[in-house]
Design goal:
The chain is built from 13 helices and 11 strands. By secondary structure, the chain is α/β, with parallel strands linked by helices. Helix 7 crosses helix 13. The longest helix is centred in the N-terminal third of the chain and has 23 residues.
Length: about 475
């Protein structure tokens, strides 16, 4: 933990700029691949802080990379800034109160995520310069984590090929090392083409694409009993064929999101879903085409990096929340159910502490989390380079991800304090790797042992380009 206090001081000196950045991005929520203003804000900050900037990374208009330093190990710190639909909310208000406009909101805290990562990268840059040390730090502004798999496209394009270690984080109810447990997934659009007809006078001449979509749903629902218990399948109808019930729908499209614990399990499950689509088309005498939209891998662990990050967390302790922060968080916690709160503790592997509104301890290294697991495109980075992630406490315990309550807390004092706190953890971990050749070697050996057993195969089809128009 050499020079930890110095890097913390560098972060404290810069924190106001990055808290302001986070708040600006909160106020301009943009969906995946449309984060033009948010990316511009991060790009401007990179330039203001003296980074060498590369735009449109991997050909993605809203991806950016800033680098500082010379020679030595290359440490990547990953940030995000995309928002979600339907989660607009007035800041700091503990009742649902959407703002006027498109209805987008930062209901997963990515406004905080990008800002804290860029703050950590800036502090590492300044530390290297002040101490005359060799090494390079990079900030990757990564768009479209929410369904667009941008990091997977970036990994496929080789933008992490010369990186030694990647570090990231995610907002949470608790502070700790983020367990390397996520689900691989693929999004596939199934488009059914039938034949239109008068629904009363000549229904026998029509072939309903909407019927095919509904029959596919029935088939997938029956499959659920016979798939691994940790797998998940979700669907959204993108085009129901129109609003006229007296017309047999000639076209309909549905998007399926298929998740599984590993890429081989995912591949098998996708094959079954495709067969169900074919069966639905056969039953309705329609034609079906399938198009992959995006795909991500499951996360790979890295024990040496996780221990290094845990050491930083244990050294710094929990975020410095005060009584005012706890009182404000309690107002939001009052909008939640006991089940919401208990589920948050289970996911952290901790016993419930009644009456506790904000994180007041570091999750232990031997905690045993259980409960629901999501997906992230950080998974693909972890297959290419040794990767570690933190959880940073920024909101009331029990707040569901992708909720208006999380959006509402995105500009509060507790969120700002959590942003600064986790930046210190990431920066400290980055310096440990840069200054300890043994730690770096152990991290690389651990990674090689994992990918050596199961080499990385990118789940994105080779012909698939980043779906930059998916939110248009």
């Amino acid at each position: 933990m050499r020079n930890t206090e110095e890097i913390w001081t560098l972060i404290d000196a810069q924190q106001d700029d990055f808290i302001a950045l986070s708040d600006r991005v909160w106020g301009m929520p943009e969906l995946c691949y449309t984060e033009f203003r948010s990316c511009a804000e991060h790009t401007a900050m990179l330039e203001a802080k003296g980074f060498r900037v590369s735009r449109e990374v991997a050909g993605i208009p809203t991806a950016v990379m800033g680098e500082a330093g010379e020679d030595g190990p290359v440490i990547a710190i990953l940030g995000e800034y995309d928002a979600l639909p339907g989660l607009s909310q007035e800041a700091g208000v503990a009742e649902q109160r959407p703002l006027p406009g498109a209805g987008f909101g930062h209901g997963c805290g990515h406004n905080l995520l990008g800002s804290a990562s860029l703050l950590a990268a800036t502090a590492v840059k300044n530390f290297l310069h002040a101490n005359g040390l060799k090494g390079r730090v990079r900030y990757y502004g990564c768009p479209a984590e929410e369904g667009g798999a941008a990091k997977g496209f970036m990994a496929r394009a080789g933008v992490f090929s010369d990186v030694d270690v990647a570090i990231s984080w995610h907002p949470s109810s608790f502070s700790g090392v983020n367990p390397a447990h996520s689900l691989a997934n693929t999004r596939i659009d199934f488009a059914f083409q039938g034949r239109a007809s008068h629904a009363a006078a000549s229904p026998h001449l029509g072939r309903s694409a909407l019927d095919a979509v509904e029959l596919m749903s029935v088939g997938v629902n029956y499959m659920r009993e016979h798939m691994p218990s940790d797998a998940r399948v979700h669907a959204a109808i993108l085009d129901a064929g129109g609003v006229a019930p007296n017309v047999v729908q000639a076209f309909a499209k549905v998007r399926y999101l298929v998740r599984a614990a590993t890429l081989p399990e995912l591949s098998a499950l996708i094959g079954r879903v495709r067969k169900i689509a074919d069966g639905a088309a056969l039953m309705t005498e329609t034609k079906v085409t399938a198009e992959v939209v995006s795909a991500v891998s499951n996360l790979l662990a890295n024990r040496p990096l996780e221990q290094a990050m845990q050491d930083n967390l244990d050294r710094i302790g929990p975020p410095p929340f005060d009584d005012a922060d706890r009182a404000a968080a309690a107002e939001f916690q009052a909008t939640l159910t006991e089940e919401d709160i208990a589920a948050a503790y289970r996911r952290a592997g901790m016993a419930v502490k009644p009456g506790t509104a904000l994180c007041d301890e570091i999750v232990a290294a031997d905690a045993r989390p259980h409960g629901g697991v999501g997906s992230t495109d950080v998974g693909d980075v972890s297959w290419v380079v040794p990767t570690v992630q933190a959880r940073g406490a920024t909101y009331a315990i029990g707040t569901p991800g992708h909720s208006w309550q999380l959006t509402a807390q995105g500009k509060m004092a507790a969120a700002h304090k959590g942003l600064v706190h986790v930046a210190k953890v990431m920066a400290g971990t980055a310096l440990d790797v840069m200054r300890d050749e043994t730690l770096l070697a152990r991290a690389k050996a651990d990674h090689q042992a994992r990918v050596g057993r199961t080499p990385y195969v990118c789940p994105l089809p080779a012909e698939l380009d980043p779906p930059v128009g998916m939110s248009a």
